[in-house]
Request: fold
Amino acid sequence: MDGILLNFYIHQLWEQGHSAMDAIIMGADRRFRAVMMTALVDGLGLLPAALSTRIGAQTQRPLAIVVIGGAISIALLTRVFQPTLVYLFRGPLGLTDEHRGRQVH
Reply:
């Protein structure tokens, strides 16, 4: 979900007249807090289940650990790799000057 929002925000900045590189940098910078807050809430919300030793913890603990790890890794991938991929594929994504002003689907 965070990746989709980041792509949408980058495209909005580009439509407003920023260059593709500036839109990618500004988008990644401005969406950083939202991505990290989502990962932090996921991790903290499942921390009791990951640390539990009570009855039923044998089934809850592995799932909680996997979800926490997934949330953290997705946050890092969204922050580091997605802006790089958007820059590399800016042509097919329609973030070039010849596409500016046209609706790209």
About this structure: The chain has one domain: 2-99. The two ends are 18 Å apart (CA to CA). Residues 14 and 20 are 6 Å apart (CA to CA). The chain has a mean pLDDT of 83.
